[in-house]
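A reminder from the course coordinator: this example appears on the midterm review sheet, so study it carefully.

Given structure:
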């Protein structure tokens, strides 16, 4: 924008790099111009200095670059101390604010590969959702809750997403399908390694490497089972001892905090122990619609009726509220097929049938 009508002057102070450890402030006097076009909403404007400083900033461009470099390397408070010793005083709040502003400008919405996972605001109490740009290895956003609606809205606002890396949570799978249908869903590195480990462990426990034979003999399997049973019994007895010890301390008149200090347990654990009348056994987590075992009765009925095709069962389960993956269902069906094959391979004893005796006169 250019104008020939001068409106006045404007003074601007910019902090620059230090000289011999001394603070340097640059005093600028800039012309203020007037726009007389009737449709122009900006009546007056000032000369810009794009190569020296950005608009409305109090530092030069090279000074801002030093602040970014030191802030990224050291953080807020250490960077403040170092900048003060170098003759360029900047507060820690200003350093962190500038880093966040630069990160938001650089990332914006151009995210191509995003990783979704849950984020704990407070452990075992309140969870959110964290979004990570896997190409830049930077956190893009943190959502307040862990729900399908919020993750779906976030994905819909960014149509540039091509790949969504997630865990096996059904909520994020549904949010990815509805919020970013153009993106490809993949498993993250942790769950890929976990699935590989489980598959290798299963195969190694069933078959050997060379001659396809059981790795453990029947005696070894029996001894291992007995050992696990003894370990569970010892664990149950140890829990009984902890239960009796905590209740004995409580009967002595000690408070929960004092018991936690003496025993080393957390106060929450002490409260759970003392509010129960008997030691609690660790039960397995309740099934949810992400697991095919949640619909085990329906699957067993379909299996008996002859409906054993994976894609048909997957479609039927989807109509009943199943939120898991098809591969998870196929793993369960594979176990059932193997069990049937083992039963069918059991050969029945041969029964010798004698030939009928014929009458020679006939």
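Designed residues:
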């Amino acid at each position: 924008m250019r104008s020939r009508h001068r409106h006045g002057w404007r003074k601007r102070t910019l902090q620059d790099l230090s000289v011999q450890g001394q603070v340097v402030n640059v005093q600028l006097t800039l012309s203020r111009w007037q726009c007389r076009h009737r449709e122009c909403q900006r009546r007056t404007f000032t000369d810009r200095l794009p190569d020296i400083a950005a608009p409305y900033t109090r530092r030069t461009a090279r000074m801002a670059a030093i602040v970014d470099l030191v802030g990224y390397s050291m953080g807020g408070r250490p960077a403040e101390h170092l900048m003060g010793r170098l003759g360029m005083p900047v507060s820690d709040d200003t350093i962190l604010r500038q880093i966040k502003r630069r990160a938001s400008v650089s990332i914006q919405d151009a995210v191509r590969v995003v990783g979704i996972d849950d984020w704990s605001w407070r452990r075992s109490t309140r969870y959110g959702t964290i979004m990570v740009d896997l190409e830049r290895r930077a956190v893009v956003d943190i959502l307040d809750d862990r729900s399908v609606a919020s993750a779906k809205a976030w994905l819909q606002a960014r149509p540039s997403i091509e790949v969504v890396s997630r865990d096996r949570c059904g909520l994020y799978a549904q949010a990815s399908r509805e919020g970013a249908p153009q993106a490809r869903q993949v498993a993250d590195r942790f769950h890929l390694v976990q699935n590989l480990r489980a598959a290798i462990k299963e195969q190694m426990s069933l078959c050997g490497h060379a001659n396809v034979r059981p790795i453990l003999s029947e005696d070894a399997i029996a001894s291992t089972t007995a050992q696990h049973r003894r370990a569970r019994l010892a664990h149950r007895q140890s829990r009984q001892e902890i239960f009796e010890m905590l209740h004995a301390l409580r009967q002595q008149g000690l408070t929960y905090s004092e018991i936690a200090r003496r025993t080393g347990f957390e106060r929450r654990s002490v409260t759970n122990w003392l509010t129960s009348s008997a030691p609690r056994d660790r039960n397995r987590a309740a099934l949810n619609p992400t697991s095919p075992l949640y619909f085990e009765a329906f699957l067993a009925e379909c299996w008996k009726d002859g409906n054993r095709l994976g894609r048909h069962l997957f479609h039927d389960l989807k109509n009943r509220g199943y939120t898991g993956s098809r591969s998870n269902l196929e793993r369960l069906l594979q176990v059932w097929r193997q069990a049937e094959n083992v039963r069918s391979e059991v050969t029945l004893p041969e029964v010798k049938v004698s030939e009928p005796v014929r009458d020679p006169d006939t």
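The domain at 113-190 is CATH 3.30.420.10 (Nucleotidyltransferase; domain 5). Residues 208-216 have pLDDT under 50 and may be disordered.
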